[in-house]
Specification:
The protein is an alpha+beta fold. The protein is 38% helix and 19% strand. The longest helix is centred in the middle third of the chain and has 18 residues. The protein binds zinc ion. One of its GO terms (cellular component) is excinuclease repair complex.
Length: 475
């Protein structure tokens, strides 16, 4: 195949500390070079990632953290690696992920890396459209390939080479056609050109697609903007939904963000505020309802509009009161809770309807104490709980990455906006708007529990002495 394509093929595989492009690092590279003539050349090295290797990855790959400690860093292998790969066609399974990790490592060194790639995952999808699984394990199984093991860079690179050789020997014409399709760039609408799309940063952010009338069609987010937008056009050839979007796009806007966290916040906010025509989820809802409950032995839960909440614990957000009641009913059935104690049935004397069906354990007729019932209710509701805002005042989530910094203003889980300059936050706070939104809550709560971003009180950021320490939420 190297002769056919008249180039040296570089089968490559990487092992990484994880799948997160910004945080994770490469720990192993394996390459098999196949030139149009001559013997294949094999090259591999462990790489010291300069961050911790999780036990899970260590078990998966069998790579011992101690071995990495003595391995060269990426900076030390960057030059020989570049020599191996320069001018080669990189062939890998899910090639764009490997390419992205390589580019990211070189970016850390202030260098640019590009290469032509061929993705055997995409080849498998296009040559075996009836198969559901296209991972390397599935391919080894399907084609009964001889693999000397998995999850080490060189053995995986070898598996990819064997896979491609098999395809070439069995169906060369179809294979070359599939390769050509992969390299062919999709057609773009007249007002957009490849240059515009290539100008998109290879970084996290949100993108906005507009139609001919300049109405907002779609808002999306990605950790790699350029790739994600190109994906829409690639996918449009096979997917109806993508086709609808792509046929209407006339103009693109994008906002680069420091990391994925800002992209998530911006996406949720933009979709809610601007209601793009083609975003199916996250529609703006004015009157969300929630379940409010004072707590154990303090009465029944109440179903109230989220905006009127005045204390007590809150559980879930629902499109309307009916949905909230349905959710409580489901919990009652699943956990044998009492319809009367939940306020879902009128407080008459005698057992509730569910107790007559033996579905309620009898808080309504003394068969179960209210304390026990409420303890069980509390456990049943736990997964819906909206945590209290853990601070006294508004907070600023400072997000940093790729030489960029953004300041998100948050108050009671409400995203009040964001600025690139902290000096603008005072005006933003004065003019704050926005309402509670479950998506924003989840994004923020996840960020907090995973320790992403830096949270500091607005007051501290605006104080003349400036920011000094970062705050941790009091629990
Ligand atoms: Zn009952």
């Amino acid at each position: 195949m190297a002769q056919e394509l008249d180039t040296t093929l570089a089968f490559i595989d990487l092992e990484n500390t994880g799948g997160h492009l910004e945080r994770d690092r490469i720990i192993e590279v394996g390459i098999i070079l196949v030139a149009p003539a001559g013997e294949p050349e094999v090259w591999s090295t462990l790489i010291n990632p300069e961050i911790r290797l999780s036990p899970a990855i260590s078990t998966l790959t069998g790579i011992d953290p101690a071995d990495l400690a003595h391995a060269p860093t990426f900076a030390q292998v960057a030059e020989p690696l570049r020599e191996k790969l320069a001018g080669r066609l990189l062939i890998a399974h899910d090639a764009r992920t490997d390419l992205a990790f390589l580019r990211q490592e070189w970016r850390r060194l202030g260098q640019v890396f590009t290469a032509d790639v061929l993705c055997t995952l995409r080849l498998s999808r296009s040559l075996f459209p009836d198969e559901k699984r296209h991972g390397l394990d599935a391919i080894i199984e399907r084609l009964q390939l001889h693999s000397a093991g998995r999850h080490r860079a060189l053995t995986d690179a070898r598996t990819v080479a064997i896979f491609l050789a098999r395809l070439y020997s069995e169906q060369p014409a179809r294979l070359l056609e599939a390769c050509r399709q992969q390299w062919q760039r999709p057609a773009l609408p007249g007002s957009l050109d490849a240059q515009t799309l290539d100008a998109l940063p290879d970084r996290p952010g949100v993108y906005l697609c507009y139609d001919e009338a300049d109405s907002l069609l779609y808002v999306g987010k990605s950790i790699r903007l350029r790739e994600r937008v190109w994906d829409h056009f690639y996918a449009a050839t096979s997917q109806q939904r993508e086709m609808r979007l792509v046929q209407q796009i006339r103009r693109l806007e994008w906002i680069e963000t420091p990391t994925e966290l800002s992209a998530l916040l911006l996406e949720a906010r933009l979709i809610k505020e601007r209601q793009p025509i083609l975003n199916r989820r996250l529609r703006r809802r004015e009157n969300l309802f929630t379940i409010a409950w004072e707590g154990i032995e303090r009465g029944s839960p109440r179903i109230v509009p989220l905006r009127d909440c005045d204390g007590g614990e809150l559980y879930g957000s629902f499109a309307n009161a009916y949905r909230a009641r349905q959710s409580l009913r489901r919990l009652a059935r699943r956990h044998g809770l009492c319809l009367k104690a939940l306020g879902l049935e009128k407080p008459t004397s005698g057992p509730c309807f569910a107790h007559q069906l033996k579905q309620c354990r009898g808080a309504c007729c003394g068969a179960e104490s209210r304390l026990l019932h409420d303890l069980r209710l509390s456990a049943a509701l736990r997964h819906l709980r909206i945590e209290h805002w853990p601070w006294d005042g508004p907070m600023v989530l400072v997000e940093e990455g790729g030489g960029q910094r953004l300041y998100h203003l948050l108050w009671q889980w409400i995203h009040c906006g964001y600025r690139a300059d902290p000096a603008d936050l005072a005006t933003l706070w004065e003019r704050r708007e926005g309402e509670f939104d479950m998506d924003i809550y989840r994004i923020c709560f996840n960020a907090l529990s995973r320790n992403r971003g830096t949270w500091m009180p607005l007051a501290q950021l605006l104080s003349p002495s400036g920011p000094q320490t970062t705050a941790t939420p009091g629990r």
